[in-house]
Amino acid sequence: MSVPTQTPGSDRVVPPTAARRVEFISLSHLNPSTELEPIPTRGIDLAYFRRYVRTLEEAGYDYTLLPYGSSSADSFVVASAVGQLTERIRPIVAVRPNTAFPLVVAQQLATLDQLTEGRAVVHLISGGNDAEQARQGDYLAKERRYARTSEFIELLRRAWTETESFSHHGEFYRFDGFGPGFRPYGDTIPISIGGQSDEAFEIGGRQADVFSFWGEPLADIRAQIERVHAIADAADRPRPRIWVTFRPIIDRTDQLAWRKAYDYAEKIGATFQKGAYGRQQLIGKDAPQNVGSQRALEFASRSEVYDRALWTRTAAVTNAGGASTALVGTPETVAAAIVDYIDVGADLVSIRGYDTLADARDYGRYVLPLVRQELAHREATGQRGTLQADHPGAFAPGFDADALAGAR
Ligand SMILES: Cc1cc2nc3c(=O)[nH]c(=O)nc-3n(C[C@H](O)[C@H](O)[C@H](O)COP(=O)(O)O)c2cc1C
């Protein structure tokens, strides 16, 4: 297949920004309800959940995210269960700092880390919606919530590392004579930051080990990564690892995948309009207050398709409440698109489908190995492999998603 020279990945040179390794994340689902086929339940289906997390482990994911919302299951308790149901996968606990005193969260995380022999990770959510924060008694404005997160991070790290007792009289927290605290299994626990506000970048760049994004067009994410790096460099600290999240839609051919994508967008849009799926009930249909969702909607209003495989209609029809931008195509096209993001510096890739359990299994079988193979090839030869050149997806001249999907 002839590929125009401007197609990213069509030459052999590995760009200097490229990450040399990648690890995969997928969110854990507690029951079979999906946006495609919502089931009116908020509960845990234990047999399903057990199967889900074991599937993730067997499929080769490295981490699983346990999300948090005021009406969700408690992410800590679920993370502890993940630890006991699996051997290798690392639970990422989503924590909102308003929900517990930082020293208590440090203790919970250290306990989880000991119980999983060093697998705990924490993802700090400062809160993107005032009404949702108020449901649990948090009335701070978002900038103040981020300032609190900054103090929270400082205290987590001190609780894990100080060898003597210490006192703290800060802006948000005050205590005397704490410690030494319960220690993690390893030296420390990775701290990730979610959010796209200016404050999220400041705190993430200066204090986080990981900075996370929802899937954005390559040019935009490249600029955002540079922004995180510049803040970390100015603070003279190691650059955070970069996490990027997608909702892939794959099938045997690009044409089948685009047909499926159009069908899915219709179904999940109808689910959203009915308010029939968990988290969407909390977020609602008003203009989102969180910058991450605002950005996703803005990208969606400008174009449906970006780069090799990024598709925004799934965000548009769900008010971008949560990770909602898709990658569409064959496993090869989607793997090549993931490598495009690795090329701009992402080294943690979160993928979760709309047909959640079946997709987790399929990605493990058909997508993860292709990405890992490309990185192994680069490691062994110092050169790019052929994955990106051979699977141009929407970079192909004349590409037309509507025509492929049979919508025109
Ligand atoms: C990868 C990722 C995972 C997230 N997980 C959660 C979650 O579990 N619960 C939640 O309320 N918000 C979650 N968020 C949303 C944001 O972190 C949240 O909206 C943020 O606190 C404020 O957003 P803003 O800075 O973009 O305005 C997640 C965001 C990202 C990027």
UniProtKB/TrEMBL annotation:
- TM stretches of this protein: none
A single GO molecular function term of this UniProt record? oxidoreductase activity
EC identifiers of the protein: 1.-.-.-
CDD domains (alphabetical): Alkanesulfonate_monoxygenase
Task: Kindly state which keywords UniProt assigns to this record, in alphabetical order.
Answer: Flavoprotein, FMN, Monooxygenase, Oxidoreductase
- InterPro entries found in the cross-reference section: Luciferase-like_dom, Luciferase-like_sf, SsuD_RutA_monooxygenase
Q: Which domain of life is it from?
A: Bacteria
Which SUPFAM superfamilies does UniProt cross-reference here?
Bacterial luciferase-like (SSF51679)
User: What range(s) does the Luciferase-like domain occupy?
Assistant: 40-347
Q: What is this protein called?
A: LLM class flavin-dependent oxidoreductase
| Organism this protein belongs to | Pseudonocardia lutea
